[in-house]
Protein 1
Amino acid sequence: MLEDTHVGFIGGGNMGEALIKGLLSASLLSADRLHVFDVISSRMEYLAGKYHVQPAVSVGGLAGNCHIIVLAVKPQNMASVLGEMNSHLSHKPLVISIAAGVPLSTLTSGLSDNIPVIRVMPNTPAIVLEAASALARGPHVTDSQMLDALALFRAVGKAVEVEEKWMDAVTGLSGSGPAYILLVIESLIDGGVLMGLPRQVARELVVQTVLGTAKMVQETGNHPAELKDLITSPGGTTIRGLKIMEEQGVRGSLIEAVEAATLRSRELVKD
Ligand SMILES: NC(=O)c1ccc[n+]([C@@H]2O[C@H](COP(=O)([O-])OP(=O)(O)OC[C@H]3O[C@@H](n4cnc5c(N)ncnc54)[C@H](OP(=O)(O)O)[C@@H]3O)[C@@H](O)[C@H]2O)c1
């Protein structure tokens, strides 16, 4: 599907690099078909040196040469990038934006007519090829273009298609989610340290516990409560710990964290 496709990244920062790394590791695209333009020339030199991708001379130069253009700049730089691209889109490339909070309407109105645009919300585990990404398609996107875009993001983790109206909830859940889980990881490590474990030992045990538990939920497909019940024996240790977590409202605080982050995402779009 993507065999002869040239993919270009405008913005080669953290996310741009993670995606380039993922596409190459998954052998989805070879480096001669991956292009990058970043305003920081040292950043392009670094990416070209490390991954052998093709540096472009300008936004327009990249846009004119690529079938898929990934916009990986900060939201505040989006308007100028769209303006610079516009006169280089006569070949009707697919445009994919990963900028948080920039709606499809802003992207399509900033581009010439009928350019297909997909909005994506990835998350930081893309760096280790374990991203959770949600993709929303704009009006002119074909099923085949959507499949190409899903394939790109599946190279760096899991990817699902959603309607754009769910993007704020996605931002509050999986976009901000790594921060919630990092807080849980940090707290559990501190719990181990409180009980006298060396910090490094506690860290190794906690990280593997979180990784293994997530994998268990993913691979068995069982309800989390069912898996939890299996390790919660009557009168045992786990039920004591769970009782404290319920008393402290851990469940409610996580649910409300997602709600608060979603509402904030909705506000940011209006700013
Ligand atoms: N990191 C995340 O967790 C995450 C998650 C989901 C979505 N996103 C989205 O991904 C996008 C990129 O995030 P990031 O963390 O990769 O940002 P980043 O590290 O700042 O990378 C963006 C790069 O684009 C460059 N740039 C700015 N204007 C440009 C232009 N006109 N043409 C070409 N390059 C330009 C920036 O240079 P300057 O520094 O000079 O501006 C920077 O090197 C953002 O829109 C963000 O909302 C990020």
Note: The longest strand covers residues 131-137.
Protein 2
Amino acid sequence: MGANSDKRGRMSGKFDHRIERKGTGCIKYDRRPELDPFWVADMDFASAPEILEALHRRVDHGVFGYAQPHAGLNEAVIDYLRVRRGVEIPLEQIVHLGGLVPALSLAVKAFCKGGAVMTCTPVYPPFVGVHQDSGARLDTIDHVMTDLGWGFDWDAMERAVTPDLRVFLLCNPQNPLGRVFTRGEIERLADFCERHDLVLVSDEIHCDLIFDEKATPHVSALNLPEKFQSRVIALLSPSKTWNIAGLGYAFAVVPDDSLRRRFSAARGHTLAEINALSYYAAEAAYRHGESWRVELVDYLRGNRDALVDFIERRCPTLKVAAGEATYLAWIDARGMGVENPAKHFEEKAGLFLSDGAFFGWPGFVRFNFGCPRERMMEGLEKIAKAL
Ligand SMILES: Cc1ncc(COP(=O)(O)O)c(C=O)c1O
């Protein structure tokens, strides 16, 4: 990671540098300033220098009227899809958005009228909330431990299908489990969607944060055989990888014309124009951010390994499986014998962790290790002490 040693021989590199975030109006630190936060999914790192430069250039222009995607952004997105996702996507199949969560909500609104949506839990909380925006029903199925790690309970999914089921929401890579589903799993899921005539909405926001792309390559819904493409909505964004979530930019790829029209029409007048700066940040991320990304993933892999090692050695009542992607660790705290582990860590250690109950699984906590290693270790020490 381009690390240097300081005078005492300690390693330090750009991701080791601690940046004060308190008082910058960020959710993570300023919502509960009295707590030490390892919750919401953004990182404590400055974004890539190439992105900061692009933003400075755009800010220096000084005029921030309504924006549209400029040619450079469109090219960068299409090149990204070709080079990183292995698909040739014509521009008209892309729907630009100010965030990915609104897209989940739009998909349910567009395709679930009077019907139901299915997803597997534990999962990023909006997956179990967006059905409320349009009065749809939600059916959840628990993920189960399989030979591949946390996987799908195919039998339970089949049993839960009802005639009014319309949409399946997939999170791949999976937040919070950190799984990168295999081609076999994704194709089986597509087949499930085809047999029950479901729209497959695939949230792939974490797909550039995979620790070993050779061992666990990302299989996008866009990589599925052609026959499935008429039911696919793939949702992507540079926001997690380059730590620009607060700027708000994401995009949907909807290969089928009719599906895309219905998805876009569901927006009505509910979504604001997209932030003029976000387009330039996204362009710079996709065009110039690859070497920074590779260094970041390397650093995060080191954090993941140190975290798993710490929990195994020092926290006998906790369990964690090494995730294959994301900077989020899903920790089984049921062995602690307390009703609400997140609350316990808050009260005993002043920590702000994500409560598994919001993901559908009480008794678990999610720990965000997208931070300097030294800071992560301090948080883990607090956890060990509070056990
Ligand atoms: C799986 C997943 N989807 C979507 C989001 C948020 O996307 P956005 O900020 O673009 O709405 C997150 C943020 O943590 C996430 O983990």
Note: The first strand starts at residue 4 and ends at 5.
